[in-house]
Amino acid sequence: MKIEPFLTEQFFADYEFSSPHLLASSDCETLSIATLLKMAGSSLEELGQVTLGYTESQGNLMLRSRIAEMYSGIEPSDIVILTSPVEGIYLGMQALLEAGDEVVALRPAYDALNNVARHLCRKVVPWKLSPGDGQWTLDFDQLDSLVGARTKMIVVNFPHNPTGFVPSPAEFEQLISFARQHDLWLFCDEIYRGLEWDAAIASAAELYEKSIVLGGLSKTYGLPGLRAGWLVVRDAEIRAELINWKHYTTICPAAPTEFLAEKALSIRYELANRSKAIIQQNLSLCREFFARFGDLFTWRAPQAGSVAFVELNLDQLGFESATEYCHHLAQDHGIVLLPGKCLGDDDRFVRMGLGREAFGASLAAYAAVISAMGGRSPVSSG
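RE: above sequence
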């Protein structure tokens, strides 16, 4: 049975490695292996001593212990190390979903959070974040109307990609209470956790026994090339089922990745603070940019994370859709923004990534393109 096209990754495959101005990247600024090891008090020589044999399917105990320290009330036995963060979406949903089940999934969202579930059980009902006056909002009355007798799981991600929305503690408790009341599984993608401006939000793993939580090093810690991720699964039976599915996919994590991931987590606060400093600097640039071009965009600043979701005034820009506009920018100007349609939303939004050091230069290039046209981009000839 075929699965839907992965629109986000297809779009990036076309432009990410050939365009000079990346304004849509969701990860934060990365660093070299040598720099990471030096920061962690290790060395390339120590990395060179890692043997390349099979590893434990559930993951190295030292790494699982390091990850468990990031949560309250979680044991190393609750952790499953992944070969890639996106593998966790596949494994978690394979372990829980069957034909005939229904899923309620927050939208907009990274494609896999919707498409894998729809591939397995055929029905995914969108729970849409609402674009309010200056900020995004959750509608719990809408959620209540979406849950039916066949609903098995709610899928969310906080801090949210692409809007940067973060639920208040009261809202998060309301979500947990709702899932418990209806006896639903909660799949919570928390890969941007740690990029809050103040204290980190609670993890669903700490609050709800029927949660599956996804974490990783790609976004907050700026290490997407490591492909390091994990799941927190408190239910032993589901965890065993999930590991069985892992035997059919990647079997076990890569030994060098586990070594480097453990070193990265030993300095996780330093890496996260580095990322947050870059984001804050880029948010300041965004405020100036969107004040300057306020007639072309609606700016809702993110509450956390490394991305923002920007609404376009398509009439003013001279395009029919955000998708058309993004292809034009990439092909004619080397500027990459991600169309909201890739993330399952209206085709009048674009995702902007705030975690890269080159963001300022790329935003300046974008401003120059807009200014050259008197605030209006030309209609694409293609």
